Amino acid sequence: MADAPYPRGDDLQQARLAVLAAVGQGDAGLAFDVVGGLMADGMPFDSILFDVIAPLQAEIGRRWQQGDYGIAEEHAATGAVETLVALLAGSFTNPEDARHVVVACAEGDTHSLPARMVAAYLLYLGWRVTYLGSSVPASDLAAYLSDVKPEALVLSCAIVTCLPGARASIEAAHHAGVPVLAGGRAFGASPDRARRLGADAWAGHPGAIDETLRSWQPDIATAERDALAPTDEMERLESRRLQIIAEAVDAARSSEGGNGAAGLRVRADVHILFDALLAALLVRDPSVMRDFGTWHRSLAAPTHVGTASATIVGGLRSAVAPLAPTAVAYLDETLVAIELSA
Ligand code: B12
After folding, report:
1. Atom of ligand 1 nearest to the CA of 157
2. pTM for this predicted structure
3. Ligand 1: which residue has its CA nearest to atom 74?
4. Helix (H) or strand (E) holding 5
5. Binding site membership of 203 for ligand 1 (Cβ less than 6 Å)
6. d(CA 222, ligand 1 centre) in Å
7. CATH class, 12-89 region
């Protein structure tokens, strides 16, 4: 079919490239047409979501991380992908009495696209879905869930710095009597982090959500009892947040000699690192900080996410050293990960 206007549904690579070309121009309508062609050609909806859209969004992220896309181009492409997923999801209408879930991002997490994809997939499977989008404040979430009483909150968290926010969201849902199924890249590849934050279940892929919700027997009281409380060390760090960040920025700047734009990046990096540290301490998981080091070092060029420098970690380490021995041990893991991936 050399003259076909759309790639064939059995050629995944072509399909991804065609949709990427459309969203790369910020054109969600064109992308919708291309996907319509793929579906008419027999490609199932879950394959469109997870084999076409998810990898092409990762490619958008890679282009931005490597500096091929500026922030505006990345936003245009991601915005078009999000519109595309919303348009696709709009074609499913499930009956009023279908089983009902609410899908939301953890408090503080602005990565709405993964949650939107999860919501679209559950609609496709026949669930009634209310999609709340990014960063819902926990108190509003509790009030909303008490009101609408869904069968579950399906919670997405994309970035480790928002794991404490995920804990707040889970507690809010439990307060409203609603059990929580958690997932997303911040929870890692096992149920441990989700369980330690009080989630009733974790799933490693959207494909596992439906079966989990159909077979689980959540016990909110037990899940809440098993959730880990903040440690004394975390409370010491949190109560001195501003002072620690200022000291860490000074230490990193003096070893790097950076001012101006470089100085601004240092401050932003220290903030993210400090939040990741608190998240790691909350879930008692040093691998959060190891992964953070590998990721930080992997940033090829200084993008808005960081200068990828051991001096940032060293600066924070010296600022927390008098207060927090576990935090120091975790930051040492970050330094080793940076060293190993250099
Ligand atoms: C687009 C994007 C943004 C957009 C989000 C726009 C939007 N509307 O969603 C914006 C610009 C807002 C953004 C902001 C930030 N981002 Co960002 N972002 C990305 C990017 C490029 C794509 C994310 C995405 O949509 N991926 C595609 C989805 C489909 O993949 P996914 O997240 O893995 O989701 C799948 C699974 O995890 C799973 N899943 C997801 N949720 C759930 C839930 C359940 C229950 C289940 C079972 C499964 C499940 O299903 C999904 C489909 O397969 C990634 C890079 C990347 N390669 O992913 C960075 C990335 C996630 N961002 C990152 C960072 C650091 C940030 C910022 C801190 C940057 C900054 N300095 O401001 C802020 C965070 C602000 C905040 N507090 O939330 C880092 C995170 C690093 C880390 N170690 O955690 C990444 C990895 C980029 C990088 N390589 O540095 N970001």
Report:
1. 41
2. 0.93
3. 110
4. none
5. yes
6. 31
7. mainly alpha
